[in-house]
Structures are given as C-alpha cells and as structure tokens.
Amino acid sequence: MTDSVHRQERTTGAGGVLITPADLAGGGVRGDDPDIRGKFGVFGGRYVPEALIPALDEVAAEYEKAKTDLDFIREFDHLLRTYAGRPTTITEVPRFAEQAGGARMLLKREDLTHTGAHKINNVLGQALLTKRLGKTRVIAETGAGQHGVATATAAALMGLECVIYMGAVDCERQALNVARMKLLGATVVPVTNGSQTLKDAINEAFRDWVTNVDRTHYLFGTVAGPHPFPEIVRDFARVIGVEARRQVLELTGRLPDAVAAAVGGGSNAIGIFHAFLDDEDVQLHGYEAGGRGAENGEHALTLTKGSIGVLHGSRTYVLQDEEGQTIESHSISAGLDYPGVGPEHAWLKDSGRAVYHGVTDAEAMEAFSLLARTEGIIPAIESSHALAGALKLGRELGPEATILVNLSGRGDKDMGTAMKYFNL
Amino acid sequence: MTTLQTVFEKARAENRSALVGYLPAGFPSKDGAVAAATAMVEAGCDVIEIGLPYSDPLMDGPTIQDAVHRSLVNGTRISDVMRTVEGVAASGAATLVMTYWNPVDRYGAERFARDLASAGGAGTITPDLTPEESEPWLAASKEAGIDTVFLVAPSSPDERISRVASCCTGFVYAASLMGVTGARESVGSAAEGLVKRTRSHTSLPICVGLGVGNGRQAAEVAAYADGVIVGSAFIRRLLDAPDEKTGLAEVRELAQELARGVRR
Ligand SMILES: Cc1ncc(COP(=O)(O)O)c(C=O)c1O
C-alpha cells in the first residue's frame, strides 16, 4: 500500500468507519512488517508441504488486494459494528486494582464482543476473505473453543460449510463450546492423537486443508502458522489496540504506562500491542501459561523457556527437546496450551520491544476469582493470565502507573473448570 | 554406498522403473526396521527411505502417524536413525532419510548432512522444506556429497515446479494427489499430468508417491514415472501382523508384487 492512500484515508475517513486501511495494515510499510517471504527478522516464513504453497500465495495475494479495497474495509467495518458489537468499551477496575498496589487498571473488554472473545475480529475478516477467494468451506483448529465458536458463527452468517478440529482433551474441558459449535451447524472433529490438544488439532486441520484445498479456506485462529497467517490475523485483530489507544487517551489524557495481554498463539496480545509499537514509553508485557510451574516442566512457556525451531509452518520459539521433538505443553487454560507462538512475538522478544513472563495456573485462577468478586466480571481463564500479570506489574510500577489489560474473553466456557477448581 | 544415480541408470538399462520403499526408523522395532527394509531390498526395492520419526507429522495419514508414534514411544533417537541407515545401506540399496525440517534444524544442518553421509546415506527427502527456506540445507548437503529431494504437487504451477526441481538432485518427488500419505483405491489421476509437466523443467528422474499400494498400481505408475514410491502399504502389513516374523514375510511378499509391477 502506498503512503498516499494512507494519508487520504486518514484525512477524509471512510464514512466514519472504525478502521481505515491505515489501521488495518498498521500504517503502511513498517520496520516490523514481514518481508516478501513472511519473515519478521529470522522468524516466520513457510515450512509447509509444497502442495500448500499455491493456496498460501492465493490467500496472500487476495489479502493484499483486500486491505486497500475500500469496499472490503467498509464491509468488515460494518460487521465489526453491527454484528460483533464494536467498539468494545474500556472499563476501569479500581477495586481489583487495590490488589495491584493502587496502579490504575483499565480493561479492554473483548469479552463483550459477540461470541465472547477477541477471536471474532479475525474470523469476520477471514470469512470475508474466504468469500472473495470463492471458497465454500472453512476449517479451523480450536483450543478453548472460542475460535471454533467464532468460526462456526461466521460460517452460519455467511452460508459456509464449517469443520472444526479440536483436541479430545479440550473437547472435554470446553464441552459447552462444543455444543455451541454444533448448534451453529458446524461439524466438530475430536482429535485423539498426540497430546489431544491445540497442537494436534492444528496438525489435523493442515491434513484436511492439503486434501480439500480447492474449495476450502483454513481459517487460522492465531498469529502463528505459515506466512501470510501471522500478518493477516494480526491485521484483523489490530482494531483492539487501535480502539484502546484512542479510548485510553480520551479517558486519561495520556498513553498507558504498560499494556498487558495473555499469550497463547499470540493473537489477542499482538492485537492490542501493535498500535502501541511506536510509543516507545509504553511497556508491552505478554503473559504465557506457567501451568504447574516452570520447575516441573508442565507449562506452556514457549517464549520464556523454549528455543528457536520450526513448528506448524513457521520459525519461532518452540517447546522442544534436544532432537527437535515437540514437548507437550500444559495449562489449565485450553487457549494457552500450545507449545509454539506467533513469529512476530518471537521477534518482539528478541528485539526487546515486548517482554514475556509466565503466570501459573494457581495465579491465574486467583485473578479469575478476584475479578469476579471485586468487579462483577468473570474473565476467561486465558485472560486471567493477563490479569494476574497485571497485578504483579502494578505492584512493580507503583500507584502512579496506568495499565491497560486485554480482557480477551469471558469465562462462561470455563465454568466446568472453575467448578472443579474451586469446589463450587 | 549406492547412489541414486546408479539406481536410476540400472533401472533404465533394464527398461523399468525403480521401486522405492519407505519405513520409519524404530518401527516395528529398532532392529525390526533394518530387517524389514533388508527384506524389501532382497525382494526388489532399489531405494529405501528411512523415516525420521517426528512428533508432528502433518503430511502423514493415520498409518504412518501410527507407526511413527510407536517408534517414538520406543525411544527412537536420531542416532538410531543413522544406525538404521547404516544397516540398510549395507543391503546395497540407495538409502535416503525422509524427514520434517525441525529435527534437522535442531541437530544442525551441517552435522546432520555429515553424519548421514558417514552412515552411508545417499540423501534426504524433506517434505516441509520449500525452496525459499532450503538454502542452508542445500549448502550442507552439497558439502557432504548427499542428494536433496524435494516435492512437487498437482497444485504446483509451472514456475514452482521449475524452482523446486532446481533444488533437487537425485530425483524429483511428485506427489500423486492432494492429500496426506496413505494407500488408496486408485492412484490420483493428476499424477501423470504432473510428471509430464515436471519433465519439461528437469532432466532428473521423477518418482511418484502417495497412494500406491499394490502391483497393479505400481505398473500403472511405472508406465510414466521413473520410480514408484510405496510407504503406508508396507507399514500396514507390519501393523496388522500378529508378530514381527509374520510381518516380515508379508512385507517381502508385497515388495515382490510391487517389483513385478514396475517390470510389467
Ligand atoms: C479468550 C481467549 N484469550 C486468549 C486466547 C489465546 O489465543 P491468542 O494468544 O491467539 O490470543 C484464547 C484462545 O483460544 C481465548 O479464547
């Protein structure tokens, strides 16, 4: 996209839309945009069967056209407003913040979107892209079930056939979401090989894609995978940070001191981080699932404990042994239970622009119940990792600080886990 | 060491296609893999691909996934893969390693190429390495004197075929259909067209894999390809056999049937 298109869009606007081409594409060619091979520094790229290269090229080419096509942008914007419920508000949570050393705490309420998590933003964008590609079938992987529910929802809305791959372990711990997907008309395929979680669901979705690629779009759910998924998913999730940045400025008259988000594959985190990348004084903190603790090996600390390798088509940080075999991750939260992570996060980590930490199951569950009791908001367990991180961060930064937290989803789906955990 | 070049020259002199058999290292057991591959060679396989078991084989169907999983549970390591190559190469077949990229990346490309060459390996097939990312592997393989085989697929446009073929030495692997590994009722109808298109971009031999499982299919493919690749059908025999001995006999029988196929 050329600069002149940006400038024009910024000054004229496109009929009061939420997002402009500039918002969508992150303000044009930036240092952090992937190059032609989809590389963020040494990370990213494409490590996939040759059979899929034409499909990835096709998706990339169509997205290049779409992101500067005002009709596409208007349609996406319209769906975000009238279907997903954007813009989502920010909510100040003073009673919760008392536990964070009195720092000012603002939550970006992605839990209030239709279907209950940030995943809907990416899904609506890619579903529109699917139609432009002339494909009639979408497939997706899901961990927590939120991406699966969002995909099934968009497929119902747009009349697309929909098949969702979900690890058998996740089907059990997120049973409510399995029922939702079925009700929405999707076929849910439980994946019983390997760790029976998100990683194996992705393997199975790739196998489906290579078999049915002529009529199928793989509606990838996070900023991982082969190019162009990390870029496309980021751009469609970018609206979270674009809105939040404006909202925080309006409310407080300045930028936040820190932004906090949970990191599974990394879509909600990149979605809120990206609009702040150039604001050098704003700290960016990502929180991975520490599971039962880093010491006993049962965690999903990909960026904090992993090493550089290739997983699911992308060079990034991976949990792997010394021979390159993937190590299974563990987390109480299905959406963070993944041994890989998006390549742009790997790049942000190595460049030092963002910092990543671990939060244990116990810390996340404590924040989960604390937000419920102090503010009347039940967060997703994934998002609770960001909340727990923000509590620690607030104590470090002190009472003058303002922290923006991405509340990526709501906790309805997690009631089964919560009932067991808290003996409710 | 028998090279791929020797294999294809010999097959051409005999006016037939070459037969390529696949088995993962460590399956049905560490020694069992060498025994099974040796039986395959004795019964007529010219080339053996030893699979390096990987935790996330996203190009493989249920049969190979199952075998690879068992192998990993048995504790197969890269050193076992190298030992398997050594054992199989001793049978006189050109021996390749078929591997996803991450284990090689982690082991170190140069070290892997060197160790494979010392084990008597003739080269590798890398199903998830594309030309864009292949630079380090091409350099390491060239240095170690081993071949690099990459895949083309029915979906590949001509410019991709040309690009992939230019990275290949030894032969070009043509995937017969859009899908994962596994024996099928019939070999994809796209295979012949793909081989024809690939010919116009390379003078290397072209082998067809995915979906071939019996002598009739082998004969069909041999009519237009320089080599016929069979994997899942061998593994199925081993998985279904009540014990390794029976499995070995079954594998030998299948290899004989396929060997007759490529000579028809
Ligand atoms: C509410 C919520 N937050 C976070 C995640 C983690 O994914 P990502 O890191 O891509 O945002 C998920 C994934 O399912 C989710 O449902």
TrEMBL record, chain A:
The modification N6-(pyridoxal phosphate)lysine is found at residue 119. SUPFAM superfamilies: Tryptophan synthase beta subunit-like PLP-dependent enzymes (SSF53686). Residues 83-409 form the Tryptophan synthase beta chain-like PALP domain. Its cofactor is pyridoxal 5'-phosphate. Coiled coil: none annotated. It is an enzyme of class 4 (lyase). Pathway: Amino-acid biosynthesis; L-tryptophan biosynthesis; L-tryptophan from chorismate: step 5/5. Keywords: Amino-acid biosynthesis, Aromatic amino acid biosynthesis, Lyase, Pyridoxal phosphate, Tryptophan biosynthesis. GO terms for molecular function: tryptophan synthase activity. The keyword Amino-acid biosynthesis applies. It holds the Pfam family PALP. GO terms for cellular component: cytoplasm. Its EC number is 4.2.1.20. It catalyses: (1S,2R)-1-C-(indol-3-yl)glycerol 3-phosphate + L-serine = D-glyceraldehyde 3-phosphate + L-tryptophan + H2O. CDD domains: Trp-synth_B. The beta subunit is responsible for the synthesis of L-tryptophan from indole and L-serine. Tetramer of two alpha and two beta chains. Belongs to the TrpB family. This is Tryptophan synthase beta chain. It comes from Planotetraspora mira.
UniProtKB/TrEMBL annotation, chain B:
It comes from the Bacteria. The keyword Glycoprotein does not apply. It catalyses: (1S,2R)-1-C-(indol-3-yl)glycerol 3-phosphate + L-serine = D-glyceraldehyde 3-phosphate + L-tryptophan + H2O. This is Tryptophan synthase alpha chain. One of its GO terms (molecular function) is tryptophan synthase activity. It holds the Pfam family Trp_syntA. Its EC number is 4.2.1.20. Belongs to the TrpA family. The alpha subunit is responsible for the aldol cleavage of indoleglycerol phosphate to indole and glyceraldehyde 3-phosphate. Tetramer of two alpha and two beta chains. SUPFAM superfamilies: Ribulose-phoshate binding barrel. GO terms for cellular component: cytosol. PROSITE patterns: TRP_SYNTHASE_ALPHA. Keywords: Amino-acid biosynthesis, Aromatic amino acid biosynthesis, Lyase, Tryptophan biosynthesis. The active site is at 49 (proton acceptor), 60 (proton acceptor). It comes from Planotetraspora mira. Pathway: Amino-acid biosynthesis; L-tryptophan biosynthesis; L-tryptophan from chorismate: step 5/5.
